[in-house]
Amino acid sequence: MPLHMSVSVSRTSGESLTSQIQKFIREEIETGILRPGTRLPASRRLAEDLSVARSVVVDAYGQLTAEGYLESRQGAGTRVVHHLPQQSVVPVLLDNGREPAVRWDLRTGGANTLPFPHTVWLTAYQRALQDSGRGHDYPPLAGEAVLRGELARLLGRWHGVRAAPGKIVVVGGFAQGLGLLCTALREAGLEEVAVEDPGHPGQRRFITDSGMRTVAVPVDEEGLDVGALAATSARVVLVTPAHQFPLGVTLSERRRQELVEWARDTDSWIVEDDYDGGLWYARTPRPLALQRLAPERVVYAGTASKLLGPGLRLGWLAAPDELLDGILHAKVRQDLGTESFTQLAFAELLRSGLFDRHVRRLAKTASSRREVLEDAVRRHLPGAEVLGAAAGLHAYVRLPRKVDEAAVVAGALRRSVLVRGGAGFHSGPTRDAPALVVGHAHLPRVGVAQATEEIAAAVTAR
Ligand SMILES: Cc1ncc(COP(=O)(O)O)c(C=O)c1O
Which residue stretches, if any, does this entry annotate as coiled coil (predicted)? Predict the structure, then answer.
């Protein structure tokens, strides 16, 4: 039984001690250094060895227990579990690993979307089946013509995207779109993709699993730091310009121009991930798509995951001619085309105007949750602020500097609120202020208010 464990922690890295201990132990377990069943030192002893408060270690152990790495039993101490969480089979874009059941789940992505419009979908699906008289054959590789036409109109109307139907490829969600793009770009000789930092941790993994390297580029309140991007050797960048994930900020006009200039000057590619496009309820108008500024350099990517449901696995790319062939070649090797009936039903939803109506309703719901969140943060979390545009399904809540983010996340979990801290969205240790990434739109209003109060209690309990 190890009564002592040497954990390396730094007091100058800017990362909280809880988070450092957590990461250290997680890595030791994942790499097999700490074997299943190994008993960890008592929290008091480890805290003494590291000269930290005992609560720091308790919180780190608590979070690792919640993640399924450790188990603790009265009298038996805390041990490494015998069966580790099966990370390899969890789809990398998702945040839906093994978690305890909680009252309020504020994670983004996964099933935490707004309710699926069953009746509307059923009507569209029935019409699609009746009208098409098809479905028994392989779908056209780039997608059903009727859907590509509807998408070209919708994206032009909503976001100013300039793409003829022939430039659009229907894909199995952004996940497949990104995979196809990585394949096409790699085959064109490119090896690196610049990604936003903070950004989507699943996307970083997804890119590296596709055989490319990621290069982290910082994001500030104007969005991606284009100067920092230009200083890298990357010739591809993945950005979320309308509503940066996770900060929620919008890429400023100045940075948009700089980014497009960079792409043109260096023959680089911009991948515009418009993951929650259409869910905009800020008072200021939504900026038009970046793609509009440089259709020859930007791949615009959209998805039905946030607007309808991730279960449909439906997304679309509007790509420059130079990349279209590579994308289609990659797709033919993967799946011979996206499933037809879903495409036809979605086209019917777009054609009939039901989709517009549905999205207007979603935006209203999401907007009311955001209002509750802003109000609750103002009242219960002094010094915190909700960052970025009122849009999409989540918000980024920046906490006061003195707050220990990992401890708040662990404290919230003890109060039955599952929320992610901002640190996990960074590609390495960060000096950014502590923060929470709050998926709010899927909760009832009372849930947003209660969850915020529990978080506030976790902050003040320190
Ligand atoms: C930043 C971001 N991009 C894209 C997606 C959508 O991926 P998909 O269309 O594969 O569901 C998500 C979903 O969670 C996301 O968070």
Answer: none
Query: Can you say whether the dihedral through the CA atoms of 258, 226, 162, 387 is positive or negative?
Result: negative
Residues 6+ apart with CB under 8 A from 267: 235
**Residue 154 confidence (pLDDT) above 90:** yes
* Contact residues for 427 (Cβ-Cβ < 8 A; gap 6+): 195, 197, 198, 199, 204, 214, 216
- Residue 173 Cα to ligand 1 midpoint, Å, equals 8
Size of the chain, expressed as the number of residues it contains: 462
In which element (H, E) is residue 318 found?
A: strand 315-318
Which of 113, 171, 303, 393 has most ligand 1 atoms within 8 Å of CB, for mutation? Answer: 303
Q: Note the pLDDT tens digit of each residue in 112-131.
A: 888 889 999 999 999 988 87
Secondary structure (3-state) at 395: strand
Beta bridge partners of 169: 317
Structure tokens that stand for 16 in this block: 């909280």
Q: How far apart are CA 425 and CA 112, in angstroms?
A: 18
Per-residue pLDDT tens over the stretch 308-320: 999 999 999 999 9
List domains and CATH numbers for the chain: 17-80 (1.10.10.10), 101-115+357-460 (3.90.1150.10), 118-353 (3.40.640.10)
Integer Cα distance of 15 and 166 in angstroms: 48
- Say how far apart CA 305 and CA 44 lie, in whole Å: 45
Consecutive H or E run containing 20? helix 17-30
Which residue lies with its CA nearest to atom 16 of ligand 1? Answer: 109
Give yes or no for a contact between 121 and 349, defined as CB atoms under 8 angstroms apart.
yes
Bridge partners (DSSP) listed for residue 249: none
Strand, coil or helix: 450: helix
Other C-beta atoms within 10 Å of 374: how many?
A: 18
* Distances in whole angstroms, Cα of residue 123 to Cα of each of 61, 130, 144, 305, 344: 50, 11, 19, 19, 12
Which residues, 6 or more positions from 414, have their beta carbon under 8 angstroms from its beta carbon? Answer: 62, 458
pLDDT in tens, 395-450: 999 999 999 999 999 999 999 999 999 999 998 888 889 999 999 999 999 999 99
CA of 312 to the centre of ligand 1 (A): 12
Asked whether the predicted pLDDT for residue 89 surpasses 60, the reply is no
Query: Which residue's CA lies nearest to atom 12 of ligand 1?
Result: 275
Q: Give me the phi and psi of 457, to 5 degrees please.
A: -65, -35
**Could you identify the residue written with the tokens 């109307």?**
157
Q: What's the helix, strand, coil split of the chain in %, to 5?
A: 45, 15, 40
Pocket of ligand 1 (CB under 6 A): 93, 109, 173-175, 200, 240, 245, 273, 275, 303, 305, 310, 315
